[in-house]
Amino acid sequence: MIRRRSTPWIHKWSRPLIGAIAGLGILNTGYLLFEKLIGGSPICTTPEGVKGCVDVLSSPWGTVFGQPLALFGLLAYLSMFILSLSPLAISETTNKNYKQIVNLTWLLLFVLAVSMSVFSSYLMYILAFEIKAICWYCIASATFAFTMLTLTVIGRDWEDIGQLLFTALIVGMVTLIGALGVYSRVNISDKIAEPINGKPVQISFTPKVQPNPEFGWEITTKSGPAEIALAEHLVKVGAKEYVAYWCPHCHEQKLLFGKEAYKIISDNIGVECGKESPKGKPELCVAAKIQGFPSWIINGEIYSGVQNLSELAKITNYTGPQNFRYFR
After folding, report:
1. Which fold, 9-187?
2. How much is the mean pLDDT over the chain?
């Protein structure tokens, strides 16, 4: 009598395990995306003086094609979730294409897991050596990606290991080249046009050089009467702005005001939180419970992230000229 070989437990449970981990990834990236959309700050605890999750998510690496990186992570985890669990809902006895579906989804799971792992490795490098921060959500996401890759490899009997390794090599190279191409924009400084016929211009900023601890990057936009009037109004109402010289989004806020108007902000109500800056007063930022940059405190409320000048005008009941030159 021929005894059938028993199926290893990992082969039975690999798909549910991948689905469960993908579910955790969906919660992780979904939470970050939600906080980004509402302008909030994710809960994140780091040692004093160490950059945290908000700094990472607000960095130039926190967006891809103008969209939050968390959105693409969410889509990737949703794909892993569907690919891992969908064959479990198909009957092997009634569906004649069952075997083909299983094989195809396994291949797609492997390809996507390799791509996610390579991309996560690149982001971990950026996190450690470029941003020099701790982001527990990012670390968790990378852990999920590597765990799912491990499960796709050991979760079934692959017929041709050599072909599997070749596929991983090709997918990994394409992913790495794509990541380098996507983030090459971080090394490009966008030239901001001057408004024409009074039409406001949309601004964005990606750093080309390292920031100067004394002032960050040079403000290249010019203020109009509306920007100067709003800056003076913010001083009168007792608003406070908290920035860090190394924060690109803080520089975007400066660009919205322009050089002349922002000098009024900086000299009167601006607080520099970078401890390496000669103007730094990190103790004031800690006391104010600032978690991300830039942040405004107006009438006791904290407003995180870059604020269009029209939004600041509305919040502070500003009634002066509002033909602002720039928007984000």
Report:
1. de novo design (two linked rop proteins) (1.20.1440)
2. 89
